[in-house]
Amino acid sequence: MADVSGTELSEEKENEIELKKRQKRPWEEFRRSGKIGITPELPETLGFFDISAVKREQQEVSADPSLTRFICTELTRGYFLEHNEAKYTERRERVYTCMRIPKELEKLMIFGFFLCADAFLYIFTLLPLRVLLALLRLLTLPCCGFSGSRLLQPAQVCDMLKGLILVLCFSMMHYVDYSMMYHLIRGQSVIKLYIIYNMLEVADRLFSSFGQDILDALYWTATEPKERKRDSIGVIPHFFMAVFYVFLHSILIMVQASTLNVAFNSHNKSLLTIMMSNNFVEIKGSVFKKFEKNNLFQMSNSDIKERFTSYVLLLIVCLRNMEQFSWNPDHLWMLFPDVFMVVMSEVAVDIIKHAFITKFNDITADVYSEYRASLAFDLVSSRQKNAYTDYSDSVARRMGFIPLPLAVLLIRVVMSSVKVQGALSYTCVFLFYLGMVTLKVLNSIVLLGKSCVYVKRANMEDKLFERPPTAPSFSAKSPSKSDPRRCTKSSGESIVDQIPATPCSPPTSSSPSVTTQPAPRSDLFLPPPTDASPATADSCPSTSEPQSDTDPPTASPLQEEEADEASDMNHKAPNKDLLEIDRFTICGNRID
């Protein structure tokens, strides 16, 4: 009992001591209180806590909550945006970017439109003249004698093939009745026509994607060096395949133009409204996807091609309608509101789509200047001495715009709409042709000047004189046949090229030839090594890139295998440079 009473007295003394401490230091009680679930930060001054502030906090917490206090707090509480300055600055920059998108995008669209117009006018103006020069070369060849192994230069062969394709497809299009197709489409229901028009748009992209491959295969098959003359027979199936493609693509565009013409001539304009609303559906399929800078470049080129094609289709519709109304100018003003509505819907859809894509993917508006410089680089490089393709083909590969089917259809519509009779009519046609040539030349001069400015601003002058990159050969595994990196001189020693992706250039010959390819500039490229015997040079050509002094002239088998693997990896790895993006995809907006 004594022990129990002693412990009770000691506990009472300890409680009294703790009570005194709490009275002296009330903030410790506030900190250790279990009734309040939160522990507010106490104001501190020179290492000591402010007791008055703690007492005010205790009074506020102990006071009963009321509606008046809640309303007063909601009306008087404040916040500072500067506490999250980086976040709000980024939001403001996004707004500024969206406001700059229409201007920058339309600059790119206008530049790309005139690029497509230049390639399209080339078919009607300069291509016939180049074909006449090639024919003149063939006719005067027996008089001048054979000065080389080829009858025509590779560029002249391509021009002849383009001319033949145009003539054959135009003659085949005469058997297609445009009026019958128009009335056949007009008899369908609105919903069916809407579905048909969507299917035609998808088919046009598919044809554009595969069509340029067919034409490139034809050009290369016709111009590649051949060891045997019977190898030239392979040009025939490629030529008929190209003619069949251009004819089918022309019919496809004709059906598109007929459907658009039916929409213009409908009484309630319901089909035209549905077709315009189809453009806004494109926003849904593009805006909410992830886009990189290269993917946006692909979409921009596809939009340029679609806008130019739509303008040509509107021109065909206006020509057909004016023919039906005996070229009455009043009917043209009746068509103008519908044409304006279609054009403005295209522009609005492109602006909205690109504005939100750049917003959601954090892409600045300055990227469109890079796109414009990349397109300008194609134009400038096609005028260089080391150019490896025609400019119209370069535009086709870059944007997916193939001018041949569209040109065939436009010639067919113009020939059926305009009747040429008498000497005065032919004089007007000749003057119109001279006007088109003048327009083409002026457009090319202005575009070339602008392109030089854009290339200079982007600091891309050094790339103009680089050799075009080519993929390594698929048969590079066999060193005895077609390894472009192993060449033997006349003395028998082997040389391994240090750059596997660079193709071998043919040996130079002392005899002049009119069929030689354009040579690169001598002040920028070193001349390729010449061989003593032409037989050994033909069997294994030498490369134009000289070996450095530090590299050994020969390589071990292990190093050769590593070089093969490196070249294969370089061939498989995607190139992210804008200059290497080629025709993109069937829809123009593939997401990697």
TrEMBL record:
Keywords: Chondrogenesis, Membrane, Osteogenesis, Transmembrane, Transmembrane helix. Signal peptide: none annotated. GO terms for cellular component: ciliary basal body; endoplasmic reticulum membrane. The keyword Membrane applies. Residues 10-28, 568-577 have a biased composition (Basic and acidic residues). One of its GO terms (biological process) is ossification. Residues 1-28, 466-577 are annotated as: Disordered. Pfam families: DUF747. Residues 540-557 have a biased composition (Polar residues). It is found in: Membrane. It is a multi-pass membrane protein. Residues 507-520 have a biased composition (Low complexity). The chain crosses the membrane at residues 108-125, 164-185, 235-255, 333-352, 401-418, 424-448. Belongs to the TAPT1 family. PANTHER family: TRANSMEMBRANE ANTERIOR POSTERIOR TRANSFORMATION PROTEIN 1 HOMOLOG. This is Transmembrane anterior posterior transformation 1. It comes from Poecilia reticulata (Guppy).
